[in-house]
Amino acid sequence: MTVPIAIIGTGIAGLSAAQALTSAGHQVHLFDKSRGSGGRMSSKRSDAGSLDMGAQYFTARDRRFATAVKQWQAQGHVAEWTPLLYNFHGGRLSPSPDEQVRWVGEPGMSAITRAMRGDLPVSFSCRITDVFRGEQHWNLLDAEGENHGPFSHVIIATPAPQATALLAAAPKLASVVAGVKMDPTWAVALAFETPLQTPMQGCFVQDSPLDWLARNRSKPGRDDTLDSWVLHATSQWSRQNLDASREQVIEHLHGAFAELIDCAMPAPVFSLAHRWLYARPAGSHEWGALSDADLGIYVCGDWCLSRRRRLAEWPGSGTPTAGTPAMNQINPRKLLLSKWTAATPLNREKHFLVTELFKDEEGTVLEIELQAVLTQRSERLPWQVLQQADTWRMGWK
Fold first, then answer.
1. Which GO terms describe its molecular function (predicted)?
2. Do 1-35+124-179+284-316 and 39-111+182-282 fold alike per CATH?
3. Which of the listed CATH numbers 3.40.50.620, 3.90.660.10, 3.40.920.10, 3.30.750.24 matches domain 39-111+182-282?
4. Most exposed: 102, 123, 214, 345, by fewest CB within 10 Å?
């Protein structure tokens, strides 16, 4: 009997790893503490319709990734969003048009991860609290005391602080992950019965508690019964008000919205606040993925990547990211033929900076650098497969 691989987390990172591994012939089983997939790419059902409280849109600057997005578009999972954008700076609101093509899930951002998940086996509403290894295999323990397993390997695709809590069986790996800090973001949704008299559909905000705002109803496939808006606070404001009540957050960010908009603002008929405790990495890394391959445990996520390589850059940054070569269209089996050309020790704990060279299907030589916890164990999962899952995210805003 084939022993499956456990993947904790059904955001983009976890689902990308699941797709890459199943394409390479592995069996997987996914776990998520939420009721559905998506993580920060999820959508919130509400009385004001489906609301994108997390990631607002993405871009596809790499050719291969753009091809995948076009396939999603043909399948009805994504659509192009062409908002009328503004910029708020120095107390002034001004139009800020650009030529960037932006994409959104349809009818919500969660449509993307639902499409990626397909019929993969997944256990939702299952919070994993412990990951432990027996003589040969891994087992998972959930918050209800139920045991799941056995699994040949474990991939943890969660924000770094949550991953650290699950790495007691891999202390060397835990010490690396524990050093990763992540910034919070408060998100607020407001809906108005009478549409606000402004043409603005999105705004990059500076010099304000707000970082970004979007007219949710302007996105394709959204419910337009109410004039719904999603506001994101800055990381600094969110950190300073981390433990504020939802009512206080709504009041403050509603006030900030009213100060910058160029029209009268009535009282909203609907409001909602959500705190993303781990919205985005506070720093930048070039790890790709981390592993203790002797044990067979792996960790991945956007916090493993530099800002320019993240899949779903938290909206509101205001700075487009540069595209880099994505490997999402390369056959994982071909990647297994690639060769490490250099492995430079970073310390005495088996951490290496690996430089990897291989050719894609068009013969282009690609070079990848990643930090890894490597050993000589031949049974380790192919790093190239996990690297494919992480670099799949290149080209996203």
1. flavin adenine dinucleotide binding; NAD binding; NADP binding; oxidoreductase activity, acting on NAD(P)H, oxygen as acceptor
2. no
3. 3.90.660.10
4. 345
**pLDDT computed for residue 49 by the predictor:** 85
Average confidence score pLDDT of the chain: 79
56 assigned binding-site residue: yes
128 is in an annotated binding site: yes
On whether 86 is known to bind a ligand per the annotation, the reply is no
Q: If DSSP codes are grouped into helix, strand and coil, which group holds residue 259?
A: helix
Helix (H, G, I), strand (E, B) or coil at 313: coil
96 in a known ligand binding site: yes
Kindly list the domain boundaries of the chain, sorted by start residue: 1-35+124-179+284-316, 39-111+182-282, 332-394
Report helix, strand or coil for 37: coil
Q: What SS3 state is found at 247?
A: helix
pLDDT single digits (tens) 105-130 = 999 999 999 999 999 999 999 999 99
Does the annotation place 57 within a ligand binding site?
A: yes
The response to whether 59 counts as a known ligand-binding position is yes
Q: Give the separation between CA 335 and CA 319, rounded to whole angstroms.
A: 32
Q: Which two tokens stand for residue 50?
A: 């489906």
Residue 397 annotated as part of some ligand binding site: no
Percentage of the chain exceeding pLDDT 90: 58
CA angle in degrees (0–180, nearest 5) for 56-61-67? 95
Cα-Cα-Cα-Cα torsion 31, 187, 283, 57, nearest 10 degrees, comes to 80
Architecture per CATH, domain 332-394, reads as Beta Barrel (2.40)
Whether the CB-CB separation of 315 and 232 falls below 8 Å is answered with yes
Residue type, 292: D
Question: Is 31 among the annotated ligand-binding positions?
Answer: no
Q: Is 150 annotated as a binding residue?
A: no
Burial class (CB in 10 A: 0-12, 13-18, 19+), 172: middle
* 63 annotated as a binding-site residue: no
* Distance from C-alpha of 312 to C-alpha of 321, rounded to nearest angstrom: 11
Q: Is 302 annotated as a binding residue?
A: yes
Ligand-binding annotation for 60, yes or no, is yes
CATH of domain 1-35+124-179+284-316: 3.50.50.60
Mean pLDDT of 329-335: 28
40 is in an annotated binding site: yes
State yes or no: pLDDT of 191 exceeds 80: yes
| N residues, the chain | 397
